[in-house]
């Protein structure tokens, strides 16, 4: 993956708009967050291969970035995004890595199931 | 005396801590106030202490809290614009400015109160302020109302200088506290903690600070 280029990511988001696409969305503090820091309240969630259709996708912020996808009946949102990649299969991968390079958030779009 | 005040904030309770004293004073002077609130704070993390709201009931609870706060302050015209919390920055900027522009055209305010874009910490705050400025920029410069902005980012004084409007609202502090307490789901824990600390923990509420927006063009 490489550091997010806003223009390129925006262009990639636009290419997924107005069609059925598969989404992977996750946030995580890591499985050991509460183990290493007892006072830390760890929480996270993930969705694998949700099928969505959005009519507007937008990237904002200034390192880290935020992405919002506006659906006909809802929203998808992720914050803390730092890096991106377009895979050979045409999947858009967005991720947020913390200061130690660990994944904290991932937002991915694909035309085929992941 | 102001002719009509328009307040534009994204979340129920944005008005309570920073500007409700100012608004209560204007209301006492007989100035009509319109409050355009962009969202219902649907994504709030505070659910009450102990929790009495959940992700699905929170919007309706916060709507009622907002209506109660408006009553306490003396806001007669509350407009709920129906956007969703944490998504304002992803809306189409022109369309958002259109919505706010319609209200400006309708009520012709002499004073607009909103967040200072870029200096208000939460992305919804910055996007809200930016949309208000965008809407007002469509008017000729000499037709624009005064804009008083709330700002609280760490660098706001460094970039914007000291706030140029400093208002003592101690005369209406009871109304301000009532407005804050109306947002029970969001403020009860905070207010209880402040009461526990005692002393001058709530002293800062008696002063409200604004930066008059300076137009570049």
UniProtKB/TrEMBL annotation, chain A:
Name of a matching Pfam family: DUF1806
Record-linked Gene3D superfamilies: Hypothetical protein YojF
Top-level division of the source organism's lineage: Bacteria
Entries under InterPro entries matching the protein: DUF1806, YojF_sf
Name listed for the protein in its UniProt record: DUF1806 domain-containing protein
Annotated source species: Parageobacillus thermantarcticus
Automatic annotation (TrEMBL), chain B:
Pfam families per the UniProt record, alphabetical: PIG-L
InterPro entries associated with the record: BshB2, GlcNAc_PI_deacetylase-related, LmbE-like_dom_sf
A single GO molecular function term of this UniProt record: hydrolase activity, acting on carbon-nitrogen (but not peptide) bonds, in linear amides
Cross-referenced NCBIfam families: thiol_BshB2
Identification of the protein by name: Bacillithiol biosynthesis deacetylase BshB2
């Amino acid at each position: 993956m490489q550091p997010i280029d806003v223009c390129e990511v925006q262009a990639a988001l636009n290419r997924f708009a107005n069609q059925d696409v598969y989404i992977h969305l996750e946030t995580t503090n890591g499985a050991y967050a509460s183990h290493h820091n007892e006072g830390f309240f760890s929480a996270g969630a993930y969705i694998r291969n949700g099928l969505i259709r959005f009519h507007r996708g937008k990237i904002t912020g200034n390192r880290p970035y935020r992405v919002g996808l506006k659906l006909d009946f809802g929203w998808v949102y992720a914050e803390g995004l730092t890096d991106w990649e377009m895979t050979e299969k045409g999947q858009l991968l967005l991720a947020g890595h913390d200061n130690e390079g660990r994944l904290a958030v991932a937002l991915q779009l694909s035309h085929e199931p992941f | 005396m102001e002719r009509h005040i328009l307040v534009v904030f994204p979340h129920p309770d944005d008005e309570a801590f920073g500007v409700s004293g100012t608004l209560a004073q204007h209301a006492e002077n007989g100035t009509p106030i319109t409050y355009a609130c962009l969202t219902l704070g649907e994504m709030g993390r505070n659910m009450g202490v102990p929790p009495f709201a959940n992700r699905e009931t929170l919007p309706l609870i916060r709507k009622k809290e907002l209506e109660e706060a408006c009553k306490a302050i003396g806001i007669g015209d509350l407009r709920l614009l129906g956007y969703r919390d944490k998504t304002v920055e992803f809306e189409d900027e022109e369309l958002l400015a259109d919505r706010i522009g319609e209200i400006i055209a309708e009520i012709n305010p002499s004073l607009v109160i909103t967040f200072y874009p870029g200096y208000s910490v939460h992305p919804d705050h910055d996007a809200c302020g930016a949309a208000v400025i965008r809407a007002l920029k469509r008017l000729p410069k000499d037709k624009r109302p005064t804009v008083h902005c709330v700002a609280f980012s760490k660098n706001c004084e460094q970039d914007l200088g000291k706030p140029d409007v400093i208002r003592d609202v101690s005369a209406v502090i009871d109304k301000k506290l009532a407005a804050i307490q109306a947002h029970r789901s969001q403020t009860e824990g905070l207010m209880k903690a402040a009461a526990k600390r005692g002393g001058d923990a709530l002293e800062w509420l008696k002063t409200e600070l604004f930066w008059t927006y300076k137009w570049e063009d």
